[in-house]
Batch of 4 targets.
Target 1
Amino acid sequence: MENYEYILETEHVSKYFGELEVLKDINLKVKKGEVICIIGPSGAGKSTYLRSLNQLEKITSGKIFIKGDLFLHREKGKTVERIDKAKQKQLLLEMGMCFQRFNLFPHKTVLDNVMLAPITVKKEQPKVIREEALELLRQVGLEEKANEYPNRLSGGQQQRVAIARALAMKPEIMLFDEPTSALDPELVGDVLQVMKGLAQSGMTMLCVTHEMGFAKEVADRVIFMADGIIAEEGVPDKIFNNPENERTKSFLKSILNA
C-alpha cells in the first residue's frame, strides 16, 4: 500500500537565471496516473520547470516532493534539506524524460541504445534486458529496426526509440519536453500515438506540448504557464472552451487561429 497522496508535488518553486526570475512560486500536485499537459508561450518557464523536477536545473527556492518524500528543499540558492544520496538516486530513477532532441548514441544500434541504461545504471542482466528492450521496441512499433543505427531512422522513429529508452528504466513518471517540436509534421502522429498508449496504460505523465489536439484528448489537467507562473489550470474542456484568464484566452486564440 502506497503511503502518499501525490506522486509528485512542488511547493513555492522559484528559479533565477542571474537576475531573471523564470519560475515564480510554482505550486503543483500530481496524482499517480494523472496526465498533465503544460502549455503556454515561448519563454513561459515550461521547460525549466520540467528540467527542475529531475535536477537538470537546480531550483533557487522551494520544495520538491516525490512519492511523499521531501526530495529537495532550497531557499535563496542554498540547500536547506535533501534526502540522502541513495534515496535521491532511487527517486530520480523514477522519472524518465524525453527531450525535443532525441540524444541517441549514434554509434550504437537502436537495441543497444534502449538496453544501455538498465545495464550500466541498474546493473541488470543483458539477457533479461534484451527481451524487455525488444518488447518496448514492439510497443513503439520499431521492433524491426532493432539492429539499425539512429541515423538510418526518421526523426519520428528516433523519438520513439528515445521513449522506449526512457521506459527501459521502468520509471513511474514520464516527463516530455515538447517531444514533437523538432519533427516534420507528418512524423508527429506516430509519436503522439505512442504517448496516448502510455497515458491509457496508467503512466503518470507531465508533457510540455504545443500539440493542442493531444492536450484536449489525453490530458486529465491542462496547465497554462506565462511569465513564469501558472496562470490557469483545469480540465481540458474548461481551459480550451471556457478559459478565465486573459492571457490564456489570447494565447489559445493565437494558437488555434494560426
Target 2
Amino acid sequence: MLRHRAAEFRKFLDEIEAAVPSQLDVDLVMDNYATHKTPLIRKWLAKRPRWHVHLTPTSSSWLNQVERFFALLTDKKIRRGVYRSVAALSSDIASFIERHNADPKPFRWTNSADDILASIERFCRYNAPAQHDAMLRTSASGH
C-alpha cells in the first residue's frame, strides 16, 4: 500500500482474516513498528482469539524475514535504479517481485542457534563489560 498507517495495516489484517479458514489459528510475527501497536490494531486483535501475536525484539530486523526480503529488493534493484516517478519505482518493484516469485529461494539461517547466542553474548560483553562482569559475579556468589 502507498501508506503505512494503522488503517492500511488493518486492511491487510482483514485480508488475512478473510483468506485463512476459520478453524485455523493465525500466528502473526511482526516488528515493533508503532503502526502495529495502535489502539485500532490492539482492539482488532483482542476480538480475535485465534490470532497469536509474536513481536520480534527491538533492533533485530535481521530476524524478520519480510525485512530480509526488503533488504534483498533494495540491494538487487532499488539502489541500482534511477527513478523519476513513483510509478517508475512501483513498476520496477513489481517486476523484481514477479521475477523473484518465478524462481523463489528460501532464506536459510547459516548459523546455528548456539552460534547466534554466542555472538550476542560477545556483543553484550564488549558493549557492557562492567555490567556483564557484575552480573557474572552476582550469579557466581548466589545472590
Target 3
Amino acid sequence: MTVAVSPGAWPALVLNADYRPLSYYPLSVWSWQDAIKAVFLERVQPVEHYDRSVHSPSIEIRLPSVVSLKTFVKPARNPAFTRFNVFLRDRFSCQYCGAREDLTFDHLTPRSRGGQTIWENVVTACSTCNLLKGGRTTRETGMRPWQMPFQPTVQDLHRNGRLFPPNYLHQSWLDYLYWDTELDP
C-alpha cells in the first residue's frame, strides 16, 4: 500500500529485509497506522522513529519513521506496465510537444486499429496532442514521438526517477535512499 506523503501524516519508509526501499517509484511508504499494525504483527522491525508517540490507555508507542520487513521480498525483474511508469519512462513530458501538463497515454497504433496497450505501443502525450492525433497513426499525422516507446528496465526508471524526487523526505529516510548523482555511470 502506498500513501500520500506529507510531513503531517507521519509516514513510514518501508525497506526490504536488506534495508533497501521496496520501491522508489512510487516511494514505498505506509501510513503510521499501517506501520504500527505491522510492528505488532511482527512483520516488520522499526529502524528509525519520529519524535512523536501515540497512546492507548495502557501503552505509549513511538511512531516509526523507517521500518524493515523481516522477510525478504524478491524485487521484480521487469517494471509493471502502469500509467505512472510510462510517464516516468517518458520523463513526465509529452513525446510530441514536450508539455508537462494534462498528460495521457497515446497508442502509436490506435486501439481502434488493433494497437495494444503495451510498452512498445504507448507514449506519454498531452491532451492536446492526443486529441490532435486522434485515431490516426503517426505516419498519417506526421507526428513523431521524440523517443520511440520501449520496455524500460528497473534501472531506466530509477535513473529517470532521480530527476523527480518526492515532495517530502524525512531526515531519517536519507540514509536509506539514493537521490544523489553518485549512482550515475
Target 4
Amino acid sequence: MDNTILTVDDLHLTMQGKKILRGVKMDIWAGHIHAIIGPNGAGKSTLVSAIMGLPGYKPEQGKICFLNKNITNLPVFERAQRGLTLAWQEPARYEGLSVEKFILAGAKDKCRKQAEEVLEIVGLESNKYLNRAIDKTLSGGERKRIELASIIAMEPKLILLDEPDSGIDIDALQKIFSLLQSLKQKNITIVVITHSLSVLNQADHAFLMCCGKVLDKGNVDRIASYFKNKCIPCNHDRLVVLSSEAVT
C-alpha cells in the first residue's frame, strides 16, 4: 500500500545480553487499526518501546521511519512532537495531580474546554472528573480512559497501545472499543498489542510475533486462527505456543 505511516526495517535489539528483537520488519498503514499478537516474551512490548524511543530500547541495527522520516535516533519528545505516542499497559497515576492538569500537560490546546471535550469523547463526565486527583481512587478502566483522553488532546497521528484490556471490566472495554473505532474515523492510526481475541477483532490487520520476529501478517480472520490452533510450524528451535488461556 502507498499510505504507509510507519516502517520498521530489520530491527535488532539486545537487552542485558539477551537478543529480544531479531530483524523485525513491519509496515503500518495510516488510518488503520493494527494488532500485534504472540506469546509472552515474543518481543511485542519491546518493539513498541523501541518505536517510541524509550530509554534503554535503542536498537543496535535496523531503522524506524515515521512519516517518511528516519526517527531511529530521535529522543522520545521529538517523536511525540511528530505525532507518535504510547499508552502504557498500566497507566501512571501521578499521585495528587488533577485530571485536568494531567490532560492539559501535553495538549496542543491548553484550555479547560479541551479537557472537557476529550473526557466526553472517552465517555467520562467532565464535571465529575476534571478536579479529581489521579490516584488509587480511580479504577483501572477510569485511568485508562483518562490516559486516552490525554493522548487525544495531544492530537497524535499514531497511537501505540499496550494491552488496553488489561485490568479493566467488560463495560469499560466496550467503551474503549467504541473509542478505537471513533479514532479510526478521525484517521488516527492505532497499533495495539494484545493477547485477547476480542481486542484483535477490532483491528483491520494483524501481525504474529514470536522469538523477536514477525512470523506472519494478514487479515484478522486468518491471524486469529492461531489462537484456535495454538501453534504453527516455524523455523525456530522451539514450537510457537499461543496459550488458549489468553483468548477472551
